[in-house]
Amino acid sequence: MAKYYFVRKFTLTLCGERRFHLLSLATGTSFKARLDPELGSKHIFPGMTYRASITKCGRGLVITHLYPALCVEYDECRALAGFVSTQKALPQYSPPSGLASVLEQAALLEQRSVRQLLDHESRFILGKHLGDAQTAQLQFAWQEYMDFQESVSGLLVQGFDQASAEQMVICLPVNGCFLLIHPPLALPFLETNDDSVLDHPGFDQTPGLRKAWALLRHLEAQSTAGNTLVEVASVYGCVADGGGGGGLADSVIAGSDDVLEAIRECAGHGWVVATEGHVQLQSNHILQSAVRHHLTRICTPFHPVYSEREIEHAFSRLSAFTPDMFAFDMLDEVTLALNSRVLLVRYDDVKAAVEFTRQYCAVSELLTNTVPTSVTIAKARCAAYENELGHAPVPFYQITDGAHAQAIVVHQFNQLPLFEIFQLLAELENVVNLVALVDATLPANAAVDQMSRYFPTVNVCIRQQGALPIQQCLRKLSEIEARIDAEDVQRVAVICDCSELVQLLNRRYCSVPADTKVPKKGDIIRLSPRGLRRKDDALIRIVNVKANELFVYQSQTYRMIKADEFAGYSWDAGFALSPNEALGAELPPVLVFTSAQGGAGGGRSGAAFVRNLQAQGVRVIEHCVYEIEGSPRLASPGTLQRIVPLVE
Asked: Is the pLDDT of residue 239 over 80?
C-alpha cells in the first residue's frame, strides 16, 4: 500500500546511481531506497513529499510506484523546516542558525504550513518572525528551486534521465522548449555511445538534425583520437552506428551534399566551425583560439635584449665561483633563451635539461636579481628536480593569479595535453621569458610540434650516461605476460610505448571503464581529476569495494574514497601506462617495455626514456624490448588549428 514519504536528500553509489534518503511521515522512520529503472521518467527531488510504494529487492529497497503528494503539507512541516535549514540544501542560500525552529514556530502560530510560508505571498507573515531580509533571501532561494524542478521535469518528459536533465538546466543558457527544437544540444551530457536521444521528437520535426547528429558524433570520435581539425572530404560516407531506438541507419552521410547540409546545420547553431575545407567542434575551436591568444599576449610586450658581452661576463663571474655548474658549455643556448620571449629546448637526457636549467637560472638571476620559476608537470616530479636544481619547482597547476617570476622554465612541456597548456598559459601574467623543455623520448605532441616550427628551438645534450642494460627481447604477447607474472602484479606497474599493447595488458590484468562502471577488488586504476587540474593523477590499488565507497591503497597509505569523491574523478585502468600517463603520477616500481625498433623517438629512445625515468626517482625493475609484428602501433600526434601567433 502506498504511503507518504519525505525526501531528505540523495547520495550516489560508485556506479552513479542515486540512493534516496526517505522519511516516513506515518512512522518517522528513515531509510534509503533506489528508484525502479521503470520509473526513469518520474522526477524525485529532495525537499518534496511523494506518495510511494516501497518493496524489498535483494539486499535493498526499491521505489516501485511514485506520485507527487497532495494534502500533506501539515504532516511534513518539521521535515521541510529541517530541510531548508540544512547547508547547501537550497543553492545560493546559507541558512541562519535556528532557522528550523523559527519556521516550525511560525507555522504553528500562523496556522499555516511551512510550504505555504516559503511562498512569496506569505512574505509579510514570515517576515514578522524571521525578518524582512532573511525572508526575502529564503523565499527567493525556494522559488529558484521550484523553477529548477519545473525545468528538469520538462526535460524528463522529453526522454532524458534526471541526472542529465539537471546538468542541462544548470549548464545550458536555454530552457527545455528550445531543447525540444534542437535536441543535439544534449550531446555533451550523454555518454559517448548513448544515441537514445534519437527517439526525441525534435529529430522528426527537423529531419536535417539526424545528419547533424551523425556529423557531431563523428567529430567527437575524431577529437577523442586527437584529430580536432578534420578535412571535410574525409567525412564522406561516415556512419555513426548507434543502438538507440530509431538508430542512426538513416543518418548516413553518404556524399558531399549530405556533408555540406550537416555542416550548415551545425554551423548555424554554433556547434561547429568550418573554414577552408576543414571542420571542427566549436569547443575545440574556442580552446585552440584561447591558446593562440595567450601565446600572442606573452609575445606582444617589449622584450629586453642582453648583449653578448653582458652574458659572457655573467658566465665568467659565475664559473669562477661555481665551476661545477658550468662543466658543459651552453653559452649559446642560454643566450638565446635570455633574448627570446618563448624558446623550446629539446633534449633526450634529463641530465642535459637540468644542466641547461641550472645555467640559465643562475645567469638570469645574476642579470635580473630574480630566480626564474621552475615548473613541473606533476607534483610527483618536484622532489627529483629540487635535488638537482637546488630550488623547489612547483607543479603547473599551482601557479595561480600570476604567482611566478618573470622568467618561467617548464620541464617536460610536451607531456601536457592542450587543455593543460591552456591552463598554464592562462595563469601566466607578466612573462619576459618562457622556456619550454621538450623531452624527445616522449610521443609526438601536435601543439608542441607546431610551436617548434614557429618559435626558436634548440637541442641540448651532454655526454651520455649509463643506461639500465636490456636483459631480453620478447617476440610474443604471451612472453610479455609471462615476464609480468614473474612479479607481484599487485605491487608493480607497466609502462609500454605501444598504445595497443597497453590496452591489451590492462584488459588482461584489471578492469577498464568500457566494461564496467566500477573497478573491482585487486584492480590498479588511474584517477584523474575532472575539469581544471588541481592535483596529480593517482595510481591506486583497490583493496575492497562497497556500494558507496572504495577502500584503496595509495602512496603507501590506506584510505576510503566515498562515492561523492569518486564522482569528481574520471578513472581508467592503471596497470599498464603510456609514457605520458606514467609521468603524470607517482609510480610504484615499474617494468618498461619498448620497441626494439625504437618507437617514435628513434633507435635509442627506449633506453633514453628509461634513463630519464631513473633520473626522476622512479625504480625501474627491468627494461625489456619487444619485436612483435604490427607493434608498436604509434598514435598520430593529431591535428589542430593554428595555435601560434598570427604575426610572423
From this structure: no
Average confidence score pLDDT of the chain: 88
Q: Which long-range contacts (CB under 8 A, 24 or more apart) does 36-43 make?
A: 36/62, 36/63, 36/64, 38/64, 39/63, 39/64, 39/65, 39/66, 40/161, 40/162, 41/156, 41/157, 41/159, 42/66, 42/156, 43/149, 43/152, 43/153, 43/156, 43/162
Cell triple for residue 202? Answer: 525534435
pLDDT at 577: 95
Q: Which of 643, 19, 618 minimizes the C-alpha distance to 290?
A: 643
Q: What are phi and psi of 13, to 5 degrees?
A: -90, 170
Burial class (CB in 10 A: 0-12, 13-18, 19+), 537: buried
Of 529, 600, 618, 599, nearest to 570 (Cα)? 529
Summarised one tens digit per residue, pLDDT across range 158-182 is: 888 898 889 888 888 766 667 767 7
Q: Given phi > 0 = left and psi -120 to 50 = alpha, else beta, which region is 431?
A: beta
Residue 9 sits in the same domain as residue 117: yes
Measuring CA to CA, which residue among 384, 380, 372, 446 is closest to residue 410?
372
Per-residue pLDDT for 101 more than 50? yes
Domain assignment of residue 639, yes or no:
no
Q: What is the mean pLDDT of residues 70-81?
A: 86
**Are 331 and 452 in the same domain?**
yes
In this structure, the answer to whether residues 431 and 369 fall within a common structural domain is yes
606-609 LR contacts (CB < 8 Å, sep 24+): 606/497, 607/467, 607/468, 607/470, 608/348, 608/349, 608/440, 608/441, 608/467, 609/441, 609/442, 609/497, 609/579
Q: What 3-state class would DSSP assign to 363?
A: helix
- Report strand pairing: 342-347 vs 457-459: parallel
**Cα separation of 229 and 316, whole Å?**
49
The Cα diameter of the chain in Å comes to: 92
- Specify whether 151 is located in the same domain as 189: no
Q: Omega before 304 cis (within 30°)?
A: no
The H-assigned helical ranges of 465-596 are 477-485, 499-509, 563-566, 579-583
Per the structure block, which three cell numbers stand in for 297?
599576449
Residue 358 in contact with residue 319, Cβ under 8 Å?
no
DSSP state letters, 449-463: HHHHHHS-EEE---S
Residue ending a domain, among 406, 430, 459, is 459
Residue 340: φ, ψ to 5° = -120, 140
435-462 tens-digit pLDDT: 999 999 999 899 999 999 999 999 999 8
Tell which wins on pLDDT, 409 or 179: 409
Higher pLDDT pick, 463 / 163: 163
131 and 228 belong to one structural domain: no
Domain that holds residue 247: 182-276
- Decide if 21 contacts 8 (C-beta within 8 A): yes
Q: What is the CA angle 157-161-164, rounded to 5?
A: 115
Whether 511 contacts 15, CB under 8 Å:
no
Give the pairing of strands 407-410 and 272-275: unpaired
Q: What are the DSSP E strand ranges found in 253-310? A: 272-275, 278-281
- The pTM assigned to this predicted structure is 0.87
